[in-house]
Amino acid sequence: MTAGLFDLPELRAREDTGLPERLARSLAETTAGWQLSTAQVGDWLAERALANRFLVERIPFDRLDQWAFVEDGARLAHRSGKFFTVEGLRVTVDQGPVLNWDQPIIKQPEVGILGLLLKEFDGVPHLLMQAKMEPGNPNLLQLSPTVQATRSNYTKVHRGSAVRYLEYFVDPTRGRVLADVLQSEQGSWFHQKINRNMIVEVDEDVPAGDDFRWLTLGQIGELLRRDNVVNMDARTVLACAPIGSDEVDALHSDTELLSWFTAERARREMRVELMPLTEVNGWRRGPWSIDHEAGRYFSVVAVSVAAGNREVTRWTQPLLEPHGLAVTAFLARRIGGVPHVLVHAKAEAGLRDTIELAPTVQYTPENYAHLTGADRPPYLDLVLAAGPESVRYEAVHSEEGGRFLNAEGRYLVVDVNEADVPLDPPPGFRWVTPGQLRFLARHPHYVNVQARTLLACLNTGAVGW
């Protein structure tokens, strides 16, 4: 008989019950990390901006290098066939003031990696953050994840240098995976784009390069209270962090919440069809941009970029440029002493599953200025009129700077009461706890990218209760 034939396999705990307590230690460290105090981060970012040459210049489409309108103008594409394309989209929905429309949209089918390395220093977990330049950021340089790379980037389609620290995420057996989930991005601007959001813990020594620093969760929470410091890609990964929760009760059980969400997906109808840019109604292409005929929503533009610390130091590319400052807010209240936020089961044309949980309000007011009465977006005017005494959190954060130019949103958490929003809100809205959102964000396609920004603020203590 072969020795060990009937040996039982070694079983493991289904979850690391000590992880929330360790992350709580990181959350508690808000003023000083292993490498930098929080007060020093601004100076370090300014130093990294001066250490490298950064330049972004608008150019006409005919000055794009490696990019061109192909198939008689049907798509704007890269010569390699990689990265992304700008195409047309036709949308038909079942409710709302506008039931059908055409628009340009970014199609990026490849799955990128957004990864944070975590390591303990003196018993306190720290995250390795990168000072990364993105051409669309209004201030160019912001804190990004350790790795922020599309498949085209890390497979070197651009023939540039290697992505630093990538090995820990393509081979996560080098550490311990704490979070790993596919998440969507902006459903109004991307067609079915997803990225792999990861947090990997390492024990080995990982030196921080010149553009990298180890910071605690508490420090990042403090930085999330500042405008345009922590970029969108870092925020979405932080939303997936396995933060502990002392919640026991909620207005709706998890099963009730999932059933409501499933019913919302089942009842909504949306038809989307990719189409040539030349057939998109209501949009005009000029030598410098593609614009909506009413001047609303966004434009597609082109830029030339120089960045001394990127894998490729010079390139050109298209960017989508929104018109106006977005307003993105959770309405919040305590119910039975437990914090709750109001989520919206929002349909967006570019989402794979049509609907994800969004903040209560997710709109650019200028796009709806012509609407009145019941056609106005729900709760938008309530948020716009909120006084400082009811605003629990507010900061301006920019969106993905690699695809969007000067795309900023005013992110808020606004306290309300029963007179503002009842316990039984209108169809499409539901009160949920932060813990329920954290649970859902550890699974794909439940919590949209704007809601994940606000969840990141909750996870890191930027929003206090």
How would you classify the helix and strand content by structural class?
Answer: alpha+beta
CATH 4th-level superfamily of the domain at 254-271 and 324-459: EvaA sugar 2,3-dehydratase subunit
Profile the largest sheet.
7 strands, mixed
Compute the number of helices: 10
Segments where pLDDT lies below 50 for 5+ residues?
none
What is the CATH architecture descriptor of the domain at 254-271 and 324-459? Alpha-Beta Complex
Total number of strands: 25
Residues in helices, as a percent range: 10-25%
Rg over C-alpha atoms, rounded to the nearest angstrom: 22 Å
Here the CATH topology of the domain at 254-271 and 324-459 equals Nucleoside Triphosphate Pyrophosphohydrolase
- For the terminal residues, how far apart are their CA atoms? 63 Å
- Note the beta-strand portion: 25-35%
| Structural shape | globular
The CATH class of the domain at 254-271 and 324-459 turns out to be Alpha Beta
- Summed over residues and divided by their number, the pLDDT gives a mean of 93
Pfam families: Hexose_dehydrat
GO molecular function: lyase activity
Binding site for dTDP-4-dehydro-6-deoxy-alpha-D-glucose 2: 188, 283, 346, 362-364, 367-368
InterPro entries: EvaA-like, EvaA-like_sf
Structural description of this entry:
The chain is an alpha+beta fold and 465 residues long. It has ten helices and 25 strands. The chain has a domain at 254-271 and 324-459: Nucleoside Triphosphate Pyrophosphohydrolase (Alpha-Beta Complex). The protein has helices at residues 19-28, 38-51, 151-154, 167-170, 217-223, 232-239, 254-267, 380-384, 434-441, 449-459; strands spanning 54-59, 67-70, 75-78, 85-93, 100-107, 112-121, 124-133, 141-144, 147-149, 176-184, 190-191, 194-201, 212-215, 270-275, 283-285, 290-292, 298-307, 314-322, 326-335, 338-347, 355-358, 361-363, 391-398, 408-415, 429-432. The strands form four sheets. Strands 6, 7, 8, 9, 10, 12 and 13 form a seven-stranded mixed beta sheet that branches. Strands 19, 20, 21, 22, 23, 24 and 25 form a seven-stranded mixed beta sheet that branches. Strands 2, 3, 4, 5, 11 and 14 form a six-stranded mixed beta sheet that branches. A hairpin with a 2-residue loop joins β19 (326-335) and β20 (338-347). α1 (19-28) crosses α5 (217-223). The relative contact order is 0.17. The mean pLDDT is 93. Residues 39-240, 255-458 form the dTDP-4-dehydro-6-deoxy-alpha-D-glucopyranose 2,3-dehydratase domain. Keywords: Lyase. DTDP-4-dehydro-6-deoxy-alpha-D-glucose 1 binds at residues 67, 150-154, 233, 400-403. Its EC number is 4.2.1.159.
